[in-house]
Specification:
There is one protein chain. This protein has a four-stranded antiparallel sheet with strand order 4-2-1-26. Strands 5-6-7-8 form a four-stranded antiparallel sheet, with no helix packed on it. It is globular and about 60 Å long. Helices cover 13% and strands 38% of the residues. The chain is mainly beta.
Length: 396
Amino acid sequence: MSPPRDRVVEGCNLVGSTAKDRNPLCPTLPVLPDDILVEILLMLPVRALLQFKCVCKSWRTLISSPQFAMDNFRQRSSADRDLTSRLVYYNRLYHHCRVGFLPLQPLFNSPSATTKVVSFDMGCRVGALVVRGSCNGLVCLHHLQSCCLRLWNPCTGSASQWFRIEFNCFTYYGFGYDHVHDKYKLVTVEGQDLTVICTFGANSSTIGPKFPSPAVGLSGSIGKFVSGTGTLNWMAKLTGSAANERKWVILSFDLANETFGQVPLPRLSGGGDNTCDPELQVLRNCLCFTIDHNNTVFDVWMMKDYGVTESWMMISRVKLWRHKYNNPLTPFSISEHDVLLLMLPDRRLVLHKSDSGLLYFPLIDSSSDAHHFPICSKTNFRIFFLYHDSLVLPPQ
């Protein structure tokens, strides 16, 4: 008769076991050193790790630790070049408030096959809940009717407590992680220049430095978070020293020091006609922006080293023969073969191959989000954020 499974697992424990601890019923099973086993586990996807917590107590303790969760997230998000990430989005025109997740790996690997959206019914009325951002596998939710915020991990199902804020209407906002103080923060700008910093865990709202209101305006209201730098970033057009001089810069907010700064853009040859405002995004954890050039093409630029002006480089040029768009070109992700996932100015998602310039329209089944506009035709009224699976627990 076979021994109970728990005895075999305990006798063949791969963490912290020695040769004399091996179960005689499985003497050929090798025992890996702890450090090698930890390195292997760190490379595994979240879904597998959630299952492996049931292997034995030592694995459960290891996988449940906050340090392991963060190390796993950092290692996988930096190694897979965004291929295991998803687009998380919400739409205030749902019959029921739903949050959708679009996996990117099948889009890049098999664009001709149908990729299905997974959506969650958030259990509230239309327009009651919006997503304010995503960071480290946590989604920032804002319940408009109750003026409350919370963080939610869709992979583990865990969520923080709701905490109430004073304001609901934001002119500009951004969600990110302060790695110096280990705090998640939502930075909001009320009206013209009042900056309010909402800190999760502490569940507090404080007044920050005055927002440097641009003389002309910002391109987009959502600040882009760059992991590792601890900064939120907005594209802004400011007045220069000379009369009638206008220049685009990146307004940055340091989440640790809670101060504003500026990051310069590269000098663009010819200047471009700027029919559309530049669009700021993050690809491969680097700041990127797209800008309309001569009304027919969009250039995609990437800043390899944050804050270093000389590290700007153009990584792609997308030709669009129907010009005079009112919307910018929006990049969401890039593969290791430099294939870009973009949202066109007409609100369609496409894959763009930099070497050939070809556009591929992937097949997407978004029927689960209960919206009558399929993503494969148009993304109208959807607000997208990049999301990575993680084991990170929301602060309580």
